[in-house]
Task: inverse folding
């Protein structure tokens, strides 16, 4: 918001303080987190940093305390707390996101499981007459992704597949079933973001059409949660780059673009990135993450 940016300009904080302030703005003002919850989460993050140093320093309490200006006995208490949380799979006092990160994968799973080829019908397996199917297909938007239309049961199956796959990476105590409210939330988010469109028909289940091959949240609240998720993964990538980890790459480009060509330039960049990703994508290979944000300096 404008007030946030104005305050930031007046305070002129350093880069590290800017990150903390933007995180606080997002969590408290948009996420609705309590002030105390934010402070608890910040304290937990600090404890994790101390625990990490403790492991790096070969579990030496005194050296760890000296590096972080803490008494060794306080370090011992923190180490015990983190050890217990790791052993029990306990979730510490942290802040969470409300948007399943697998939504971005949804269009690609649809394309894989319900592909469409030119000349073939977009609608299959319904009680509609050929004329009714033809009328629906005629009214579809131009330049749709190569995917068939699906019904509400098939849409639910796609969401269940993605949710189940995302849970497999979590320890058993932290896995959650796909509840009906969450299922409805995901479906509504897909429709609201204009990734999916619902088509009500006279007979049978409603149909859904895939409008684009990407998911981009629409409301400011959803975009804030996406921003936080992206920032977290970007920090992880830059940390790997700092440590010279293999297959890491940092890019920064500054260029002057005429105002009437900015949108054209960004659209062209989007197409280039999609073509690049399609060229090198190979199912089952190690996953490479590319993050990019562009805007006026």
Result:
């Amino acid at each position: 918001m404008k007030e946030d940016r104005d305050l930031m300009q007046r305070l002129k904080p350093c880069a590290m303080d800017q990150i903390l302030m933007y995180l606080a703005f997002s969590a408290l003002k948009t996420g609705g987190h309590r002030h105390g919850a934010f402070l608890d989460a910040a304290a937990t993050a600090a404890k994790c940093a101390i625990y990490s140093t403790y492991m790096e320093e070969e579990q030496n309490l005194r050296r760890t305390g000296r590096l972080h200006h803490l008494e060794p006995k306080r370090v011992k208490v923190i180490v015990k707390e983190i050890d217990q949380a790791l052993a029990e799979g306990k979730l510490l006092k942290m802040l969470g996101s409300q948007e399943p990160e697998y939504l971005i994968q949804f269009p690609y799973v649809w394309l894989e499981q319900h592909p469409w080829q030119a000349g073939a019908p977009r609608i299959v397996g319904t009680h509609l007459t050929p004329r009714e199917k033809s009328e629906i297909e005629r009214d579809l938007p131009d330049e749709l992704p190569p995917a068939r239309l699906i019904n509400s049961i098939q849409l639910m199956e796609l969401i269940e597949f993605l949710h189940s796959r995302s849970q497999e990476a979590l320890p058993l105590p932290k896995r959650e079933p796909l509840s009906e409210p969450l299922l409805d939330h995901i479906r509504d988010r897909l429709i609201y973001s204009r990734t999916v469109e619902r088509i009500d028909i006279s007979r049978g289940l409603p149909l859904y059409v895939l409008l684009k091959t990407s998911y981009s949240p629409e409301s400011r609240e959803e975009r804030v949660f996406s921003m936080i998720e992206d920032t977290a993964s970007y920090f992880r990538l830059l940390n790997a780059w700092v440590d010279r980890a293999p297959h890491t790459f940092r890019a920064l480009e500054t260029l002057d673009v005429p105002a009437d060509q900015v949108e054209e330039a960004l659209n062209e960049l989007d197409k280039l990135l999609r073509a690049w990703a399609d060229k090198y994508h190979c199912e089952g290979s190690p996953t490479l993450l590319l993050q990019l944000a562009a805007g006026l300096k």
